[in-house]
Predict the structure.
Amino acid sequence: MFEPSTPITTLLSTLAATPAASEGMRAMLQRSSEFVNPLIAQLTGIALDPAGRELADHTLDHYWADEQRQQDTLNASLCDREVIIGSGYHAAVYAATRVQAGYPKPLVLERGQRVGGIFATTTRPVFYLNSPNRPGGPGLAGDLGANLNYLPGAPIQAANVSALEYPTNTDMAFVIRLALAQFAEVVPDTNVIAYDDGDGGGAALAIDSRPTLPAGRVIDARGMGDPDGGHLANGTTILTFTQFIQRMAGLWPLRGLRRVAVVGGGDAGKCVIESLLGIAPQPFMAAAALDHVDRIDWYDDALPTTCTVWQDEIRGRYQAIGRYLRDDRSGARRLTVKQRRAGVVDVPGMALIEGRGYDLVVLCTGSKEPFIQGLGGLGECDLYSVYGAGPVAQQYQGEPVFRVGPHARLPFSAQERNEGVADVPGNAVAMFRLGSKTAALAATLPPVIRA
């Protein structure tokens, strides 16, 4: 049992003093005997109460944004401290596992203003996760007793947060943020721009508009990276996936959209399609009578074009999309897959693809690695393996820097191939697959020792 950290204690005190937001916390304490400890019961009650979760999120944001606390945290950084770049899922996994293995809290640096990675990009739910919401621990995709959204070491799990079939992005964001609040020192709005190998085998990080930060070890947890089509996006008629989900969290997100194109058929593209069809989480202030996309053209050279083939080839999480690949009773079809790659042209007031005009084009064409001077590509890394877990990270040659998560592009193991995990290309970056690897790294790395 761990003692609540300062931000968690602040969160609990704030909610206890706000009756309108503490109902869930008080109610769940009536079932505290069903939890490992009362703290988990309290946090679960907060997560299940919309008012409680909103206030908790606000409290954490306010705590992390305090400029004096940020300065004190950075100034107190020691040369033997572990620093994590990025504040998403794998940062939380590493921090939670590392602290519970008996090591000091790592320092987490987030370049944005909001902590939690891609899942916390919006404060309202805008997309569902790929794996079902169920209790249990980590496991492989075919293990029905496993929770594939499991975050090793977290105070609560996604299954504590919602009873929906699939968790939303904000469900997972809340789990990540609680884990970081408990097990890490977090400084947002801190952009790492360069890395230097320091004296005595350590490192130094150059930070935009802040002093250089010494570090004994760096964990590079930058997730999927930046949108690959960002240079084409204009923020109005052409959006990246990140820009689109931010739009979906705002007022009237589908207002004025009649004809929309989506470029790219990966999980991001599928989530965009769900939003456009109205089968994603309910948008804020949207109604079918006012906001309805009449036609959606989906450009990708590997997607099924018919409902029958879709149902045969696409996994269950996205099955609902398939029924829109056929005509409705009136003979109209809202969704059409065009099996080819497409280029987009920005013209005043609209976007063009192959001469067709669209009110909006959403680019879901993959990601690219954010640039940090001194940290090269995977060609400068070697696989780092742990006995019993196989490759769990990539280590920069001769440097105390480890890539984790999707950023590491870890190969499938023989067991993953035997279990069929490797049969689904998207599993290469799946949380259920990579979370346990990051946890294995955190549990087994030796302590940082500086000369």
Notes: The mean pLDDT is 93.
